[in-house]
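Exercise 3.2. Students should predict the tertiary structure of the chain below and write it as structure tokens, then compare their answer with the key that follows.

Predict this chain's 3D structure.
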Amino acid sequence: MRLVLIGPQGSGKGTQAKIISKKLKIPHISTGDLLRNLRGELKQKVDRYVNRGELIPDELMIEILKDRISKPDCKKGFLLDGFPRNLRQAKELNKLVEIDKVFEISIPDEEAIRRISGRRNCENCGEIYNINTSPKPKQDGICDKCGGRLYQREDDNEKAVKKRLEIYHKETEPVLKYYNTIKINGKQDIEKVTDDILKELDV
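Answer key:
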């Protein structure tokens, strides 16, 4: 089964991708992990853009993805998280492989802002909390695990989140129209969102 999960920042698509891929026993492929795990020639190509502060071109992202889905663990399927990000990537992906189902985990912008602006990271162990949702730290500003100081990442403030949402609406929403997308209510509990996805997959 070849699946795609799409959703705005804070929709919980990364969480759902981990759960669903585990249940279906197929690899969870996120663009972030793909780029972090690159080796050899592809890594050198990506570094050229990253070091100049430039976006990675669609052609290169497709090349990286093509390399990943050619691996033996993808023979029975895979779950793409956060890809394709735009219409061009969707059309190029369509030339590579037939996608079985595409899910959009949908939440309103104000909910995305509430969730992301509430994120706090531990500067010591990297544990993530959320002061607006959960898990909340037991003590304000202090990590439950190691006692480290909690901080808000620069790109998690309201202004930065609004900018990312603008890009999502402009570039990623056309992808939803390109596919026969199944819409899932992302405001529900994590377990309910998972159940709704699994029902659509008949598993």
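Discussion points: Helices lie at 13-24, 31-36, 40-51, 58-69, 87-96, 109-117, 158-178, 190-201. The beta strands are 2-6, 28-30, 78-81, 101-106, 119-122, 128-130, 150-151, 182-185.
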